[in-house]
């Protein structure tokens, strides 16, 4: 399995799509390098973005990101449905997060002697819950096309399952470290909710946790608790935000921190980059192991280009082997080692077959690109909306339309309606 890990792309509304965009050349070269590496390693099975897709959480920034990601996926030979995203602080609309009422909720969490309990209390209050998440509305509209949108209090993390080469599961967990983010952010001032501490270990499942903020940006006590939890349950961890690439290899886990794809050119240590991570399970006389190869690609100038960061021995990747628990696939679920990995599940969607889940994501991507009026017309005509849906944000209503079409056997009708709307 190959995972492309990007972070901190920072699409700026006033720059992207203009001839004055200072990062056009950098992004163009990144795509060329990804294509070259994928020609050698194979197409990605997942494109993981650990936050800061936008720069100011603006809808136009997310629209540009959607088109750029579609072009990237086409170039490196994977479907756009392979994209998996989590929110970062730049995906937050600061004017919303800085509002007095929102800051009152933030302060009640930051000043609490028990932040986890206070967060849970605020999430149980519908008005406070809405205040905590409304600055991520634009992000959620964008993330909805990948079935990664969040709806508190029950869905405050994104989840997706991928099939590994031995038939076991790689489970992606996308955490939200940005719901208390605002212009007042400082190291040690951010939080996760209790759901982030409830990631289970399961036989035949490898947990990969993705979050935007490095642990050092969380409140100290919670950072320690989350780190201990992740080190116990997730042998693979990916972070962004700090704009510095790091590969930490421990007996029990591999932790990757990504360079920014588009760091601020004036920041100290400017070094754009991205990661490609190869995963493969081996089964032998001594048991099951997970082989990890992290290809860290960093930008240099004069000559321009992305090059491999090397380990101390001069090797162009960082290799590590993790010991896994014994697991044997059920007889009916046995797969060939030659079979490519595939997407098989997404949280809160009652689909187990890989092809069915892929179908939902492909339809979701097409549905997302339609205008609001066309989406509403299709939902009404196919009777896929219910009265209670009117209380939900747009991104969640449109997500439910896709899910209900699957549950009610209306996917073909929905597909025909989407295609017809695209032509019209």
TrEMBL record:
Pfam families: GAAD (PF19976), Metallophos (PF00149). PANTHER family: TRANSMEMBRANE PROTEIN WITH METALLOPHOSPHOESTERASE DOMAIN (PTHR31302:SF0), TRANSMEMBRANE PROTEIN WITH METALLOPHOSPHOESTERASE DOMAIN-RELATED (PTHR31302). Residues 1-244 form the Calcineurin-like phosphoesterase domain. This is Metallophosphoesterase. Residues 360-418 form the GTPase-associated adaptor domain. It comes from the Bacteria. InterPro entries: Calcineurin-like_PHP, GAAD, Metallo-depent_PP-like, Metallophosphoesterase_sf. SUPFAM superfamilies: Metallo-dependent phosphatases (SSF56300). GO terms for molecular function: hydrolase activity.
């Amino acid at each position: 399995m190959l995972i492309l890990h990007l972070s901190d792309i920072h699409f700026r509304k006033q720059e992207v799509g203009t001839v004055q965009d200072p990062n056009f050349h950098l992004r163009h070269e990144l795509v060329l390098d990804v294509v070259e590496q994928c020609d050698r390693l194979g197409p990605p099975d997942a494109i993981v973005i650990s936050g800061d897709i936008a720069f100011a959480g603006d809808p136009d920034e997310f629209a540009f990101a959607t088109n750029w990601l579609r072009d990237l996926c086409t170039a490196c030979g994977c479907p756009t449905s392979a994209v998996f995203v989590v929110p970062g602080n730049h995906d937050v609309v600061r004017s919303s997060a800085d509002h007095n009422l929102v800051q009152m909720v933030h302060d009640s969490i930051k000043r609490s002697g028990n932040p986890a309990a206070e967060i849970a209390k605020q999430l149980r209050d519908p008005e406070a819950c809405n205040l905590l998440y409304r600055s991520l509305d634009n992000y959620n509209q964008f993330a909805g096309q990948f079935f990664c949108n969040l709806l508190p209090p029950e869905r405050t993390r994104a989840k997706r399952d991928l099939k590994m080469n031995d038939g076991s599961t790689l489970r992606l967990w996308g955490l939200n470290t940005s719901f208390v983010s605002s212009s007042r952010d400082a190291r040690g001032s951010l939080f996760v909710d209790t759901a982030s501490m409830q990631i289970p270990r399961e036989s035949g499942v490898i947990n990969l946790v993705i979050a935007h903020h490095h642990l050092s940006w969380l409140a100290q006590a919670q950072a320690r608790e989350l780190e201990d939890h992740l080190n116990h349950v997730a042998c693979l961890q990916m972070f962004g935000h700090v704009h510095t690439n790091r590969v930490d290899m421990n007996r029990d886990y591999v932790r990757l921190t990504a360079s920014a794809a588009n760091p601020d050119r004036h920041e100290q240590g400017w070094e754009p980059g991205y990661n490609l991570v190869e995963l493969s399970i081996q089964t032998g006389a001594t048991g099951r192991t997970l082989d990890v190869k992290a290809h860290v690609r960093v930008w240099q100038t004069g000559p321009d280009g992305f090059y491999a960061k090397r380990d101390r021995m001069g090797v162009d990747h960082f290799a590590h082997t993790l010991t896994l628990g014994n697991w044997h696939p059920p007889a009916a679920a046995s797969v060939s080692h030659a079979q490519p990995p595939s997407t098989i599940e997404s949280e809160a969607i009652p689909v187990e077959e890989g092809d069915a889940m892929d179908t939902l994501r492909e339809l979701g991507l097409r549905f997302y690109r339609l205008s609001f009026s066309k989406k509403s017309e299709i939902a009404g005509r196919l009777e896929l909306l219910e009265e209670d849906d009117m209380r939900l944000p747009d991104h969640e209503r449109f997500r439910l339309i896709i899910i209900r079409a699957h549950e009610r056997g209306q996917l073909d009708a929905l597909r025909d309606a989407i295609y017809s709307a695209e032509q019209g």
